[in-house]
Amino acid sequence: MKIDTFGVEMWMNEWETKCELNLAETCVESLSIAELLLIVGKNETDLSALLPLKMTYGEIKGSDRLRNAIAALYDKQSSVNVVVTHGTIGANMLVHKTLVEQGDHVISIVPTYQQHYSIPKSIGADIELLGLHEEAGWLPDLDELQKLTVPETKLIALTNPNNPTGALIPRKMLDEIAAIARRVGAWVLCDEVYRGTDQQGAGTTASMADVYEKGISTAGMSKAYSLAGLRLGWIAAPIDLIEKVMVQRDYDTISVGMLDDHFATIALESYQNLLKRAHDITRGNLSYLASWIEGEPKLSWVKPKSGTTALVKFDLEMGSYDFCVELLQKTGVMFTPGAALQMEGYIRIGYANNPEILKAGLERVSDFLLRS
């Protein structure tokens, strides 16, 4: 199997350890184990419960307790509709490998997380890209989606909230997407790893697994829950698909780590506490970022409604890769170039890191832009 180079991950691999102020980070500021225990109402003495734990494979699908905690994040799911994976990236890979065969017709929005078009392409699928446009608020054009969706369409892939734009597909539009898919019997995979970070209300948007009978939702502990180090994600989907996923999963997963399962469980059993922290950080930081962009004449954007990233247009006589490399080398501040996302002329800014890092980084960027 030949597969395209993963643009964003290659960028991160090359530069993430070389920056001083990481404004390419997409996770809400990561938690230490001590901070996690404090947030969920436990303390160091609770760690003693781990001492007799034998380091076996553990429960293959994920522990019952963890899958019950994950199911509670949805309106219509139960533990039998959930399987635990190695991060959301593992969940997405498993869904594509399970559903997509050579010659299948797959539709993916762009920009999006590259897995959703590069993996089916590598399998030999016929890929149609549905471009998102700034003037439409980075939301999918449903008339265009309807034209692209044909009887042969096997899968429609979305990210909601969207990476990199921060756009949020509202419930009514999710229902309309489901209706388009239903007419041809297509599956809809929705990567919801940023779910829980909406800028308004309770912060949690509707999930495709709850909206559509052939809806698949993937998510994990990394973004809203600030626990990327657990490398734990999941798939929520109809039982028949979960059973098919398990066939693929036996070849590359077996089980997640027992410690990952344990800490993800105690986190999700108090998920409201973690999401409150995420809202405090992302809502405060986005407000600050909005004020900053308003004062920068070389930058423009559509303000995100969710997620942890913003796609920002820049007006400079250089490409996005050169811009980001020069910025990092001269200021120590790291952005992600739009070129890594097939969006030349833009940069992706992650605004969910520590507020002091964001403020210090943007101050340096202002000086850089003034001299550019």
Question: How would you describe this structure to a colleague?
Answer:
The protein is an alpha/beta fold and 372 residues long. 40% of the residues lie in helices and 16% in strands. The chain has 13 helices and 13 strands. Strands 2-8-7-6-5-3-4 form a 7-stranded mixed β-sheet, with helices on both faces. Strands 9-10-13-12 form a 4-stranded antiparallel β-sheet. Strands 1-11 form a two-stranded parallel sheet. A hairpin with an 8-residue loop joins β12 and β13. α3 runs parallel beside α10, α4 runs parallel beside α5 and α11 packs parallel to α13. It starts with 6 loop residues before the first helix and ends with a helix.
What does the secondary structure layout of this molecule look like, with pairings?
Layout lengths: L6 H9 L5 E2 L10 H7 L24 H8 L10 E4 L1 H13 L5 E6 L4 H9 L2 E6 L10 H7 L4 E7 L11 H14 L2 E5 L16 H4 L3 E6 L12 E4 L2 H14 L5 H11 L2 H24 L4 E3 L7 E6 L5 H12 L1 E2 L1 E2 L8 E5 L4 H17 L1
Parallel strand pairs: 1-11, 3-4, 3-5, 5-6, 6-7
Antiparallel strand pairs: 2-8, 7-8, 9-10, 10-13, 12-13
Helix pairs in contact: 3-10, 4-5, 4-9, 11-13
